[in-house]
């Protein structure tokens, strides 16, 4: 992939690039929709990457070529405006944040290409943001740290992209370590690395091929509902700042009189935070069966309480339950499509995965895709 992108850059701009940035996608083992509620998550970076090549130019323009889409944009760095291109707007939104931080931006040329499937729940958008921001940081000598890049991306998502998510995806892309998942508290931002040792089991992703886009799916609706819940909580309990602060044994009393759907949303968040901690304990104990049970419980909550699943995701999870080699499965990511994450016996991976996809096709007519992923390092800059 790197050589293809280098050849494309040279052909397009008539010169070699100055640096390469590699940014990974991510999985999230458990802890879904908890990040923007100040809760716990357990992500890991994976060996599916987005590749960026950069060089400076002697202009006030940013020239970007999306190799996979065969699309180009020319950004006027003195007049940053939203376009009709979603991927371009991610870049422009970050450049706006650079300017708001009073960071100088040199003219630049860029080519990028991705191995991360779009809309599959592996956070191609966060890899896009982190890779681009790292390149901009380096060529402009801005001296940004990982958390500063996360903050820039988070603000851009909220203010420019109108996507009201959390920090987990960017965190995973930047802080990933090989063979480690990361327990992150999205409130105080403390985190610790956990050895992801599954012994004779493996992680497999199966893509429903039903795509979502956060700005047009129900993702923002859930974020709005959670803000309403926070307001209801703080009316009577100002010491509780977010849903994740509510103790399980107090939720029933606190939520009396709320609309039923908001009670369900809050119950899911409180339960999911507990599941994250229980998953970490099971991981430490090597209790694969318990991990799998927690995945199924998480999906049940996402399907029935948080209401972010879809029939295709539910079908894949139900099919997985019928195979004893699969210890657990759930939808992964924002929902309304994308992938399921499955933990299954390593020596049966190909057979079981093909069976799941065959049964899925029989029921839907859709050809699913599978991905066998390894846990990788976070994003990096390579000087050329």
- Spatial sequence of strands, sheet with the most strands: 5-4-6-3-1-13
Got a strand count? 13
Large-scale geometry: globular
Would you tell me the overall average pLDDT? 95
| CATH topology (level 3) name of the largest domain | Ribosomal Protein S5, domain 2
Computed structural class: alpha+beta
> What is the CATH architecture term of the largest domain?
2-Layer Sandwich
**Whole-number tally of structural domains:** 2
Q: Tell me the series of helices and strands, N- to C-terminal.
A: HEEEEEHEHHHEEEHHHHHEEHEE
Polypeptide structure, described:
The chain is an alpha+beta fold and 384 residues long. It is 42% helix and 22% strand. The strands form 3 sheets. The protein has a 6-stranded mixed beta sheet, with helices on both faces. Strands 10-11-9-12 form a 4-stranded antiparallel beta sheet. The chain has a 3-stranded antiparallel beta sheet with strand order 2-7-8, covered by helices on one side. The protein contains 11 helices and 13 strands. The protein has helices at residues 2-13, 86-100, 124-139, 146-159, 168-175, 219-236, 248-254, 260-285, 288-304, 311-321, 349-364; strands at 19-28, 40-41, 43-56, 61-66, 71-76, 108-114, 180-185, 191-195, 201-207, 326-332, 339-345, 369-372, 380-383. The mean pLDDT is 95.
Describe the secondary-structure layout.
Elements: H1 2-13, E1 19-28, E2 40-41, E3 43-56, E4 61-66, E5 71-76, H2 86-100, E6 108-114, H3 124-139, H4 146-159, H5 168-175, E7 180-185, E8 191-195, E9 201-207, H6 219-236, H7 248-254, H8 260-285, H9 288-304, H10 311-321, E10 326-332, E11 339-345, H11 349-364, E12 369-372, E13 380-383
Parallel strand pairs: 4-6
Antiparallel strand pairs: 1-3, 1-13, 2-7, 3-6, 4-5, 7-8, 9-11, 9-12, 10-11
Helix pairs in contact: 2-3, 2-4, 3-5, 4-5, 6-8, 8-9, 10-11
């Amino acid at each position: 992939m790197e050589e293809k992108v280098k050849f494309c850059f040279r052909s397009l701009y008539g010169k070699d690039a100055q640096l390469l940035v590699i940014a990974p996608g991510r999985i999230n083992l458990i802890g879904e929709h908890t990040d923007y509620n100040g809760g716990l998550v357990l992500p890991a970076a994976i060996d599916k990457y987005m590749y960026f090549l950069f060089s400076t130019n002697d202009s006030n323009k940013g020239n970007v070529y999306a190799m996979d889409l065969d699309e180009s944009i020319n950004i006027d760095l003195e007049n940053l405006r939203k376009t009709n291109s979603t991927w371009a707007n991610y870049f422009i939104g970050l450049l706006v944040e650079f300017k708001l931080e009073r960071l100088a931006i040199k003219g630049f040329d860029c080519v990028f290409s991705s191995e991360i499937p779009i809309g599959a729940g592996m956070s191609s958008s966060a890899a896009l943001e982190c890779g681009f921001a790292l390149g901009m940081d380096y060529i402009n000598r801005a001296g940004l740290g990982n958390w500063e890049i996360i903050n820039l991306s988070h603000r851009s998502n909220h203010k420019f992209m109108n996507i009201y998510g959390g920090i987990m995806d960017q965190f995973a892309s930047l802080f990933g370590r090989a063979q480690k998942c990361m327990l992150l508290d999205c409130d105080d931002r403390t985190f610790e690395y956990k050895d992801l040792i599954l012994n004779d089991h493996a992680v497999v992703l199966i893509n429903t091929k039903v795509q979502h886009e956060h700005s047009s799916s129900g993702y923002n609706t859930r974020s709005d509902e959670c803000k309403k819940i926070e307001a209801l909580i703080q009316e009577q309990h100002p010491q509780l700042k977010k849903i994740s602060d509510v103790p399980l044994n107090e939720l029933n009393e606190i939520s009396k009189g709320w609309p039923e759907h908001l009670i369900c949303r809050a119950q899911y968040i409180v339960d999911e935070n507990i599941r994250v901690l229980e998953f970490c304990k099971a991981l430490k104990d090597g209790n694969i069966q318990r991990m799998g049970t927690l995945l199924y419980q998480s999906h049940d909550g996402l399907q029935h309480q948080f209401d972010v699943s879809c029939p295709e995701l539910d079908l894949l999870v139900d099919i997985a339950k019928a195979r004893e080699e699969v210890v657990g499965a759930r939808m992964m990511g924002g929902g309304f499509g994308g992938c399921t994450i499955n933990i299954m016996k390593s020596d049966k991976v190909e057979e079981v995965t093909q069976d799941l996809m065959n049964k899925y096709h029989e029921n839907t007519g859709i050809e699913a895709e599978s991905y066998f992923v390894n846990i990788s390092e976070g994003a990096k800059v390579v000087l050329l």
